[in-house]
What we know:
mainly alpha; 18 helices; 0% strand
Amino acid sequence: xxxxxxxxxxxxxxxFLWLGTGTFxxxxxxxxxxxxxxxxxxxxxxxxxxxxxxFISLIAMISELGVSAALIxxxxxxxxxxxxxxxxxxxxxxxxxxxxxxxxxxxxxxxxESDLVSMIRVLGLNMIxxxxxxxxQSLFIREMNFKIKTQIELAAQLGATMLTLLLALRGIxxxxxxxxxxxxxxxxxxxxxxxxxxxLVPLLDLRGSGRLLHYGLTLTGDRLMNFVYAESDxxxxxxxxxxxxxxxxxxxxxxxxxxxxxxxxxxxxISFAAYSRIQDDLERIRTNVIGTTRAxxxxxxxxxxxxSAVAPLAVPLILGEQWEPLVVPxxxxxxxxxLKALGTILPSAxxxxxxxxxxxxxxxxxxxxMASAFMLGVQGGVIGICAAWLVAYPVVFGITTIRSLRTLxxxxxxxLVEVRFPFLAGAVMLILVxxxxxxxxxSQPVYSLILVxxxxxxxxxxxxxxxxxxxxxxxxxxxQL
Length: 481
């Protein structure tokens, strides 16, 4: 791992380059496939998958026990500790599969959907597959070898995407999504283990790994609270509103979250690995946190606000007229997603400096507040749930951000300085695009969509060039190796 500043910066930027390029290529194909699959499947298929995914995600989170992050964060790591952790994770993966198999009928009874029994039992295979490559993948991240990691994930994603599309065309419904997901984890499992340089020989003796396990268990507590915060909306919608409403909500959330879900994990992975290597240099971490916040805010506000503005044109055009009821939920969710994107930056730094308990308390706060908001919002249907996000999450974001900034020794005022202009410029762009979209009506909707997107892009760039030209140049330089 490079220790001097220039080599370290080069490693970080190369990591962004590899993960960013791989993600772009994979998603370019995946997005088109996803659109076709959405057209082929029904909202009820996505509702079933969302119900199963909530439970599977919970078991997967517990099975992994946070040890992957512990391996990345550790200052020093021995071959013996790697063997110990690898053995422990494989055992918990097998237990996770057994829990999935046994719990299938209970989950099906909770949602009153008998098809969930077989779905959850088959998806339980992912517990074994994911834990089988958890340690090798973490070692690649620890070593900041994002080239191989990206190649593996790109191959797995493309293989799973093509298989899902093929099976959807053959008319097997929700099982196309299930088989595709299993295929993705199978490819990752084989590739990561074949290419890993460490021999993961089983070792049941856990002596000497107490700190790693303690860190991992604390992180698991944080993730459990994050699960409640992130998945309680789907649980409540599925239970109260039923499978079709859940399917529509899940599609709206998934589509709106695509930019964040594909970009922010890259930022989080590289940031956590990089911060862990310089965890004793808090001033350096602060500088990088502010810089990352500036860049993410600069991009996320115009992207998500722009998505909200063009939704009335884009959703029916891309997905078909049958998905037009998704427009308003999609718009509401897009408005809050810039804050969700920013909310993923600080936890990586807090974890890296060895303060997982701070993130754990943050997730307790977020879980309690968001679950309460969803219980109230569900009375208004899917739109009520989306409105709950828009009203409650900014409050949650403010509280948890202040607590994280204090841990890192940063002021909330300095943080707001980095976020204020992108928010205001994005809001102005949103209003102007909304007005243009209502005024301009062309014979071909695709031409109208292209026009408003181009107009919005010109508006935002013009505002940046007028008021923040230096910031624009700085971010451009950060993207150049």
